[in-house]
Amino acid sequence: MASSSPLRVALAGLGTVGAGVIRLIDANGELIARRAGRPIEVVAVSARDRGKDRGVDIGRFLWVDDPVALAKHAEADVVVELVGGADGPALAMARAALASAKNFVTANKAMMAHHGLELAKLAEAADVALKFEAAVAGGVPVIKGLREGAAANEIARVYGVLNGTCNFILTKMEAEGRSFDDVLGEAQRLGYAEADPSFDIDGVDAAHKLSILASLAFGTQPSFGEVAITGIRHVIAADIAEAAALGFRVRLVGMAQADGAGLFQRVHPHLVPLDHPLAHVLGSLNAVVAEGNFVGRLFFQGAGAGDGPTASAVVADLIDIARGEYGPPYAMPAESLGHPQPADSGERASRAYLRLTVADRVGVLAEIAAAMRDAGVSIESLIQRGANPDGSVLVAIVTHEGPERCVAAALSQLRDSPSMLGEPMWMPILAG
Asked: What does the alpha-carbon distance between residue 46 and residue 65 come to, in Å, rounded to a whole number?
């Protein structure tokens, strides 16, 4: 039976998302109360700067300087952490709140990727909720979809476009033919990329999210340290153009698959066929695909960041808690989560795109073909583009399906050649 007393929320972090949570509760409070069966009220807040203008009235809430003290606040039923960071105040808050038997909601993908198992055990021991819908894909309800909607299914693989900054850059490069550095600068000016964008463009943010999705999909312990990570820093305009000519688009894809070979987790640029839904995920959108043995392919798409979408996911978690609807954070008790061996990526079979920058001289193509032959790589197509002003030429290769270790061996052999003028680029071609 629904309670008439409000669900009292202590909120730490009043940046874009934290202020968005307050605005959302203010704007939709009556509707939220009807759906939750009781009002949801912010009662206390904490942030670094009390006097900053955030566009919302925080004077009506109790101010607590210390976020850990806020996490133990006697009047709070739920603690919401929007501070960020894998460790530091965010982790201290999480541990304090759960030790005080308070429900906990976070949008912190880094903390959940590194410490999710520990926090899940604390929440289960205290019989309180640990919710993190906003940690992956912003307002897209993919965690709820995996944990609840697809709970009866064995998931074969889960994958997707998990970082809006990278997707914005790649789709801009694709649409306008511009260089990576040029588009990155625009993304920074528009606020899509941080002043130091390495967390996004080097794939770490996507890897945090992938490790969370893999845990939910396969019933395994979060294992961020076992995710192989390659970002988009070395994707050039020619790669985008070659992909388009071949009928593909370049996307940074996080891929997780569990089978008899172990648990495979990787973030890497892929060539995505134009008839695949991920090829049509544009701009800063996120999308996740999960393949269940009875439900088939599930496709989730939406805004992966921003105050509105992320605040929406945070408040959705609060509504679940107000209803008393929560179970184990990772869909099954933490003690039941497995820890399979990492799969050997070298044995994965796929088609691949290779881009080589080589000297414009006789015999180079024969050298490349010999390296591929010796490594057991079958070439589907090979294209050599005209010479650049510096005397280099671009060679683009598409391979037939084969083990990735063979491609790695061929590239290793070619790296030592004086004909190579730059680091080769390798991208798997997404199947299915």
From this structure: 6
